[in-house]
Amino acid sequence: MNDKNIHAEDQVDVAGIRAILFDLLRGFFKAMSFAGACIRKNKYFITLSFVLGMVLGYAYYALKPQQYKAAMIVQFNRLSKRTYAEMIEQLNHMLITEGSVAAGRDLQVSPMTAGKLESVVALDFEDHELTTDTSTKVEQPIKIVAALRDINDFALDSIQQGILHYLNYSPYLGTSAIEEEKANQFKLGIIDNDLTKLDTLKTEYNHFLGSSKISATYYNNGANPAEFYAQTVNLLYQRDMVLRQLLVNRLSLVVLDGFKLTDTPKTKSVPKYILVFGAAAAVLAFLIAFMTETRKKVMPK
């Protein structure tokens, strides 16, 4: 295609583009100059707004409830992870809908203490919530994390004991624990009785061997002392297991490591609130001044 055949409208108008750019730059610098004039003319108003904003920022920080987080590690011995997560969700729902009086009743703490509790969540060791966990293994450790406000005037132990009471002594778990304890006490009595009989039998057998002329290395088919001791070891093992159920695993949840604060309000957030509020107030004051001066310029009296 010959250059002569190119239409004039297809050619780039360099001069026009340069003029547009100059106009944009001229407009930008005029706006900057006008903004600077607005700031100089209203500097006392903007400065006062900045100071008032900082005061408001500090007041907001001082009056805003401070949130803390505490975590404890527990081992669950009954039910499933998902069931405990659902029970904790019910506790959170109660805190929101029924308030501190109802929560305090179920937690067995004062309403004032229950009012410090904002929320509770159950997590695995990878910080995943247990609401979707479908595993059925028991005697596994989990984390319970509580969000608290203003913990200065009450002991963290009260919240810990309250949550444990809520989870351990629900109607089902409370009845189940009582019945299981009765069964284990019965088992322990039988094992102790059998151990007493075995001790008596071993004593009598050793007395018989000592008073007879039979060699101590001779055993007949009727009695083998090695079986006495093997049975004793077996019963002692069973006794230890029952005692563990009675002393360690008798509750649905057992504390492995009590509540420790994991997150506290940082002191460095004070200047952050002051500067953010101050800057926001100064920007708002500038916008008001800019619009006022623009109106005066556009619509002079």
How does this model look, in words?
With 301 residues, the chain is an alpha+beta fold. Helices cover 62% and strands 13% of the residues. The protein has three domains: 15-62 and 269-298, no CATH class; 65-174 and 255-263, Alpha-Beta Plaits (2-Layer Sandwich); 175-250.
Shape descriptor: elongated
The residue ranges in which pLDDT falls below 50 over 5 or more consecutive positions are none
Provide the succession of SSEs: HHEHHHEEHHHEH
N-C termini distance: 62 Å
The whole-number mean of residue pLDDT values reads: 78
| Residues in helices, as a percent range | 55-70%
Estimate nothing, just give the exact number of structural domains: 3
CATH architecture of the largest domain: 2-Layer Sandwich
Strand proportion: 5-15%
| CATH-defined topology of the largest domain | Alpha-Beta Plaits
What structural class results from the helix and strand content? alpha+beta
Can I get a quick summary?
The chain is of the alpha+beta class and 301 residues long. The chain has helices spanning 14-41, 43-63, 81-97, 99-107, 111-114, 156-168, 171-211, 225-247, 269-298, and strands at residues 67-76, 117-123, 140-149, 253-263.
